[in-house]
Amino acid sequence: MTMPKFEPVAFVQSDPDGHLHLAEITKTEACQNLDQWDRQVGWKAVPLHTADQLTEAYEAGKRDATPEGYALVPKQPTLLMLRAMYPCESTTEAYKAMLAAAPKGEE
């Protein structure tokens, strides 16, 4: 899955020191003037996005962080994970039990 691409809702200017100047500029102005600003004085056009767009991109990034068929687990097993493996009779069974007992999501 790929990250969603959003059209910025507006652009603002950023000076060479990284300070934002909240004078809104249009996409056309941003595209036409970006190279000129950057060459002459180091100004940049900074795209602005809505909170919904940023939330959707964040959620997509979380989904894409772990490939299908893989699990994101702690570097060190938790106490619950260690306890889950003790009644198991095989390594594969213990591994599956530990994965099932691993923290999920934002715990």
Largest sheet: 3 strands, antiparallel
> Quaternary arrangement of the chains shown?
single chain
Helix content: 40-55%
N-to-C SSE series? Answer: EEHEHHH
Number of strands: 3
Low-confidence blocks of residues? none
Shape: rod-shaped
Distance between the termini: 24 Å
Taken as a percent bin, the fraction of beta residues is: 5-15%
Question: Numbering strands along the chain, what is their spatial order in the largest sheet?
Answer: 2-1-3
What class do helices, strands and sheet pairing give? Answer: alpha+beta
* Tally of DSSP helical segments: 4
Mean of residue pLDDT?
Answer: 77
Radius of gyration: 24 Å
Mind sketching the topology for me?
Layout: E1 10-14, E2 20-25, H1 27-40, E3 44-48, H2 51-64, H3 79-85, H4 91-101
Antiparallel strand pairs: 1-2, 1-3
Please sum up the structure shown.
By secondary structure, this protein is α+β, with helices and mostly antiparallel strands. It is built from four helices and three strands, in the order ββαβααα. A three-stranded antiparallel beta sheet has the order 2-1-3, with helices on one face.
List keywords for this structure.
single chain; alpha+beta; 3-stranded antiparallel beta sheet; rod-shaped
Structure description:
The protein is of the alpha+beta class. It is 43% helix and 15% strand. The chain contains 4 helices and 3 strands, in the order ββαβααα. It has helices at residues 27-40, 51-64, 79-85, 91-101, and strands spanning 10-14, 20-25, 44-48. A 3-stranded antiparallel β-sheet has the order 2-1-3, with helices on one face. Strand 1 (10-14) and strand 2 (20-25) form a beta hairpin. Helix 3 packs antiparallel against helix 4. The longest helix has 14 residues, at 27-40.
